[in-house]
Amino acid sequence: MPRRPRPVLSPRKTPKQARSTRLVEAILQAAVRVLERDGAAAFTTVRVAERAGVSVGSLYQYFPNKEAILFRLQADEWAATGQLLDGIFSDTRLDAAERLRAAMRAFFRTECDEAPLRRALGDAAPLYRDSPQARERRERGLPLLAGLIDEVAPNITPRRRAFAVELYVTLMTAIGKQVSEANRTPAEVDAWATAIADMFLAHLHEPRRR
What we know:
Blueprint: H1 18-38, H2 45-52, H3 56-60, H4 66-89, H5 96-113, H6 115-124, H7 132-138, H8 142-152, H9 158-180, H10 186-204
Protein backbone atom coordinates (compact mmCIF):
# COMPACT_ATOMS: atom_id res chain seq x y z
CA MET A 1 0.00 0.00 0.00
CA PRO A 2 1.60 3.34 -1.00
CA ARG A 3 2.47 5.68 1.85
CA ARG A 4 0.35 8.80 2.04
CA PRO A 5 2.47 11.84 1.11
CA ARG A 6 3.21 14.30 3.90
CA PRO A 7 1.10 17.45 3.76
CA VAL A 8 2.78 20.72 2.88
CA LEU A 9 3.30 22.67 6.11
CA SER A 10 4.96 25.81 4.77
CA PRO A 11 2.78 28.85 4.02
CA ARG A 12 2.29 29.70 0.36
CA LYS A 13 3.55 33.23 0.87
CA THR A 14 4.37 35.70 3.61
CA PRO A 15 2.21 38.83 3.94
CA LYS A 16 4.15 41.97 3.12
CA GLN A 17 1.53 44.72 3.42
CA ALA A 18 -0.55 45.78 6.40
CA ARG A 19 -3.78 44.59 4.79
CA SER A 20 -2.47 41.09 4.06
CA THR A 21 -0.93 40.90 7.53
CA ARG A 22 -4.33 41.68 9.06
CA LEU A 23 -5.91 39.01 6.85
CA VAL A 24 -3.49 36.32 7.99
CA GLU A 25 -3.94 37.37 11.62
CA ALA A 26 -7.72 37.13 11.24
CA ILE A 27 -7.35 33.64 9.77
CA LEU A 28 -5.14 32.51 12.63
CA GLN A 29 -7.43 33.97 15.29
CA ALA A 30 -10.39 32.27 13.66
CA ALA A 31 -8.44 29.01 13.51
CA VAL A 32 -7.85 29.14 17.27
CA ARG A 33 -11.56 29.65 17.92
CA VAL A 34 -12.58 26.84 15.55
CA LEU A 35 -9.99 24.49 17.02
CA GLU A 36 -11.04 25.17 20.61
CA ARG A 37 -14.74 24.91 19.75
CA ASP A 38 -14.80 21.97 17.34
CA GLY A 39 -11.55 20.10 18.01
CA ALA A 40 -8.93 18.85 15.59
CA ALA A 41 -11.14 16.16 14.03
CA ALA A 42 -13.70 18.71 12.79
CA PHE A 43 -11.19 21.41 11.89
CA THR A 44 -11.49 22.46 8.23
CA THR A 45 -10.33 25.37 6.08
CA VAL A 46 -13.97 26.10 5.21
CA ARG A 47 -14.91 26.56 8.87
CA VAL A 48 -11.88 28.74 9.49
CA ALA A 49 -12.65 30.94 6.48
CA GLU A 50 -16.28 31.30 7.55
CA ARG A 51 -15.27 32.25 11.10
CA ALA A 52 -12.69 34.74 9.80
CA GLY A 53 -15.23 36.27 7.40
CA VAL A 54 -13.04 35.68 4.35
CA SER A 55 -13.34 33.50 1.26
CA VAL A 56 -11.69 30.10 1.14
CA GLY A 57 -9.76 31.38 -1.86
CA SER A 58 -8.28 34.18 0.22
CA LEU A 59 -7.25 31.68 2.88
CA TYR A 60 -5.58 29.46 0.27
CA GLN A 61 -3.47 32.38 -0.90
CA TYR A 62 -1.48 31.95 2.30
CA PHE A 63 -2.13 28.43 3.61
CA PRO A 64 -2.20 25.41 1.25
CA ASN A 65 -4.23 23.19 3.59
CA LYS A 66 -5.55 22.82 7.13
CA GLU A 67 -2.33 21.13 8.26
CA ALA A 68 -0.35 24.27 7.41
CA ILE A 69 -2.71 26.36 9.56
CA LEU A 70 -2.50 23.94 12.48
CA PHE A 71 1.26 23.76 12.21
CA ARG A 72 1.47 27.56 12.21
CA LEU A 73 -0.60 27.66 15.41
CA GLN A 74 1.60 25.01 16.97
CA ALA A 75 4.80 26.74 15.81
CA ASP A 76 3.61 30.04 17.29
CA GLU A 77 2.84 28.29 20.57
CA TRP A 78 6.23 26.59 20.59
CA ALA A 79 7.94 29.90 19.84
CA ALA A 80 6.18 31.72 22.69
CA THR A 81 6.88 28.93 25.16
CA GLY A 82 10.45 28.58 23.94
CA GLN A 83 11.09 32.29 24.40
CA LEU A 84 9.71 32.10 27.94
CA LEU A 85 11.83 29.09 28.90
CA ASP A 86 14.97 30.36 27.18
CA GLY A 87 14.67 33.58 29.16
CA ILE A 88 14.54 31.61 32.41
CA PHE A 89 17.31 29.19 31.40
CA SER A 90 19.55 32.18 30.57
CA ASP A 91 18.80 34.18 33.74
CA THR A 92 22.18 34.10 35.49
CA ARG A 93 20.78 35.85 38.56
CA LEU A 94 19.54 32.39 39.59
CA ASP A 95 21.70 29.33 40.05
CA ALA A 96 21.22 26.46 37.63
CA ALA A 97 19.02 24.36 39.94
CA GLU A 98 16.66 27.26 40.64
CA ARG A 99 16.41 28.02 36.92
CA LEU A 100 15.30 24.43 36.33
CA ARG A 101 12.66 24.83 39.06
CA ALA A 102 11.52 28.21 37.73
CA ALA A 103 11.20 26.90 34.17
CA MET A 104 9.13 23.96 35.34
CA ARG A 105 6.79 26.28 37.28
CA ALA A 106 6.46 28.67 34.33
CA PHE A 107 5.63 25.86 31.93
CA PHE A 108 3.02 24.35 34.27
CA ARG A 109 1.38 27.76 34.62
CA THR A 110 1.17 28.27 30.85
CA GLU A 111 -0.12 24.73 30.45
CA CYS A 112 -3.01 25.58 32.79
CA ASP A 113 -3.64 29.03 31.29
CA GLU A 114 -3.77 27.68 27.72
CA ALA A 115 -5.19 24.22 28.41
CA PRO A 116 -8.04 24.22 25.82
CA LEU A 117 -5.78 25.29 22.94
CA ARG A 118 -2.93 22.98 23.93
CA ARG A 119 -5.27 20.00 24.22
CA ALA A 120 -6.67 20.72 20.77
CA LEU A 121 -3.19 21.14 19.31
CA GLY A 122 -2.20 17.88 20.96
CA ASP A 123 -5.05 16.15 19.13
CA ALA A 124 -3.85 17.70 15.87
CA ALA A 125 -0.20 16.75 16.42
CA PRO A 126 -0.32 13.46 14.43
CA LEU A 127 -0.83 15.56 11.30
CA TYR A 128 2.65 17.09 11.54
CA ARG A 129 4.62 15.84 14.56
CA ASP A 130 6.99 13.66 12.51
CA SER A 131 7.84 16.38 10.01
CA PRO A 132 11.39 17.84 9.88
CA GLN A 133 9.95 21.29 10.67
CA ALA A 134 8.30 19.98 13.85
CA ARG A 135 11.45 18.23 15.04
CA GLU A 136 13.56 21.33 14.43
CA ARG A 137 11.14 23.53 16.39
CA ARG A 138 10.97 21.10 19.30
CA GLU A 139 14.74 20.82 19.61
CA ARG A 140 15.66 24.52 19.57
CA GLY A 141 15.96 25.03 23.33
CA LEU A 142 17.63 21.73 24.19
CA PRO A 143 21.25 23.00 24.19
CA LEU A 144 20.40 25.54 26.91
CA LEU A 145 18.75 22.82 28.98
CA ALA A 146 21.75 20.54 28.53
CA GLY A 147 24.03 23.37 29.69
CA LEU A 148 22.04 23.79 32.91
CA ILE A 149 22.18 20.07 33.57
CA ASP A 150 25.97 20.26 33.18
CA GLU A 151 26.07 23.05 35.77
CA VAL A 152 24.01 21.06 38.26
CA ALA A 153 25.85 17.79 37.62
CA PRO A 154 29.28 18.71 36.18
CA ASN A 155 30.53 15.12 36.13
CA ILE A 156 27.57 13.73 34.21
CA THR A 157 28.39 11.54 31.22
CA PRO A 158 27.13 12.48 27.74
CA ARG A 159 24.80 9.50 27.79
CA ARG A 160 23.27 10.43 31.13
CA ARG A 161 23.02 14.06 30.04
CA ALA A 162 21.06 13.09 26.92
CA PHE A 163 18.74 10.95 29.06
CA ALA A 164 18.34 13.79 31.59
CA VAL A 165 17.36 16.27 28.86
CA GLU A 166 14.70 13.87 27.57
CA LEU A 167 13.53 13.12 31.11
CA TYR A 168 13.12 16.81 31.99
CA VAL A 169 11.14 17.56 28.83
CA THR A 170 8.95 14.48 29.32
CA LEU A 171 8.22 15.31 32.96
CA MET A 172 7.45 18.91 32.03
CA THR A 173 5.06 18.11 29.20
CA ALA A 174 3.36 14.94 30.40
CA ILE A 175 2.80 15.90 34.03
CA GLY A 176 2.16 19.52 33.14
CA LYS A 177 -0.65 18.36 30.87
CA GLN A 178 -2.10 16.12 33.58
CA VAL A 179 -1.97 18.89 36.20
CA SER A 180 -3.64 21.33 33.80
CA GLU A 181 -6.62 19.01 33.43
CA ALA A 182 -7.28 18.79 37.19
CA ASN A 183 -8.57 22.35 37.80
CA ARG A 184 -5.97 23.13 40.46
CA THR A 185 -5.27 26.47 42.13
CA PRO A 186 -2.16 28.46 41.11
CA ALA A 187 -0.53 27.54 44.42
CA GLU A 188 -1.20 23.86 43.80
CA VAL A 189 0.19 24.12 40.27
CA ASP A 190 3.39 25.69 41.59
CA ALA A 191 3.67 23.02 44.29
CA TRP A 192 3.39 20.26 41.70
CA ALA A 193 5.94 21.89 39.41
CA THR A 194 8.44 22.45 42.23
CA ALA A 195 8.06 18.86 43.43
CA ILE A 196 8.65 17.48 39.94
CA ALA A 197 11.71 19.71 39.49
CA ASP A 198 13.09 18.62 42.86
CA MET A 199 12.61 14.96 41.91
CA PHE A 200 14.51 15.63 38.69
CA LEU A 201 17.35 17.35 40.54
CA ALA A 202 17.56 14.46 42.99
CA HIS A 203 17.87 12.11 40.03
CA LEU A 204 20.83 14.11 38.69
CA HIS A 205 22.67 13.63 41.98
CA GLU A 206 22.02 9.89 42.22
CA PRO A 207 25.20 7.78 42.08
CA ARG A 208 25.85 6.36 38.64
CA ARG A 209 24.56 2.78 38.38
CA ARG A 210 26.82 0.21 36.81
